[in-house]
Amino acid sequence: MHRSITRLAAPLLPALAVSCGPAGRTNQGRGDDGTGGGVDTTTTGTTGASTRPNTDGSDDHGEQPPDDIAADLGGVPRPDPGPATRTVSEWEQMFRDTWDAERTEYMALCDSADSWDFYNASYYVDGLAQIAEATGTQEYVAAAIECVDAMIASARPSTELGGEAFNDEYLGWTSFQNGSTGQEEQLYEAHMWRHVTELLRVIDGDPEFSAENADAYERILVFTERNIFDKWYGRGGGPTAYVYAIVTHMASHWAWICLDLSALSEDGSIVERCTEVVEHIDHTGVPGVPDNSGLRGQLIEDQYAQGSYFFDMWWGSTAPPGQDVSHGNAVVAYIVEAHEHGAYWTLDDITRLVGTMKLIWPAGGDECAEFVDGSGSDACWFSDGWDRLGRFDGEIQYRLESHDVGRGGQLYATGALNAAELGLR
């Protein structure tokens, strides 16, 4: 039987200044590039069941959760929601208002046998995992499983994937999009599979989800162990070829996958190797790259703003302008997930990432920087990582309520889970 893992409560951050965002709310659907477009909508709330544990560890599926969930979880106080007001049920209604269209779009990608389509469908799986966790609703878990099962069904032995494939015993896919010409692409697979393991962890952490989805959980976990982790860990002569990627955001995909597998797998070899991968990427240093101490060594305090982190995408580099904000989503999402599951990253790290987000997205408008040193100008797409910081800071959550970029299911699902952790029921 797999080990049950429960997400930790988000601890209290110091009170921060309140900013006023624009009054209008927009509901934009994201295209494949994640930049979005769309029309204004208003929302009404529906009540979803909670998957958040009470202080005694029990759940209240099918009922509005009691007030003490908002006040305390396992003795750890909730963050102050500050100016944020949108509730879990209101975020969920926004999610449902876009779901029919998004489900059709994204399931077409899940049904593809081209791994670049999986890269883009990852936003859908992440959204479903988060909205399921926020509301305790099995329908969302089933939809995510439908996508994952479709991808697994299209996997073929590498020996059947053509001349550009690895021609080994593993199952997988190739791509003929985004510049690929029939190769097996670890980036596309890992970009998706961090959210597949996130889904497994959501299932594992909820007794009702575990009971309802036991068979799907086991078959997805077995496939993931063999045809995602073992495959890319061993190819090229060892993990330095693919798992220990040359840039931080790509390595963070594997850190997330391994963080989850080290908790969920019953295979001792996988647990041992994944634990090592996480430690290397987190703080002991990425093998094969000189002069680095993992993500810990990349994070430079107070370089461009007090109470913030600066970091570059290249291991060992501290050169400005640093990591681009868009790809920085992956690093932030991983650190938040690791912190919430009680792993290496601390509240101080989260607080400083909040500071970085406020540097790149100054209060009083919707202008944002292209790089984490605050320079340049970009589209302010936060929907795959930076927006998770809203669960620790009410000001950020408030601004996300009216943020115009990346409006769609993934952002709304993150908003719902943020609201749950802020106690906004």
Describe what you observe in this structure.
With 425 residues, this protein is mainly α. It has one domain (26-422): Glycosyltransferase, CATH 1.50.10. It is 48% helix and 5% strand. It has 14 helices and eight strands. It has helices spanning 67-71, 88-110, 115-135, 138-154, 186-204, 207-212, 214-234, 248-264, 268-284, 294-298, 325-340, 347-360, 394-400, 409-422; strands at 26-29, 37-40, 72-73, 76-77, 156-157, 171-172, 300-301, 309-310. A hairpin with a 7-residue loop joins strand 1 (26-29) and strand 2. Helix 2 (88-110) packs antiparallel against helix 3 (115-135), helix 5 (186-204) packs antiparallel against helix 7 (214-234) and helix 8 (248-264) packs parallel to helix 11. The longest helix is centred in the first third of the chain and has 23 residues, at 88-110. Residues 1-75 have low confidence and may be disordered.
Offer a few descriptive terms.
425 residues, mainly alpha, Glycosyltransferase, two-stranded antiparallel sheet
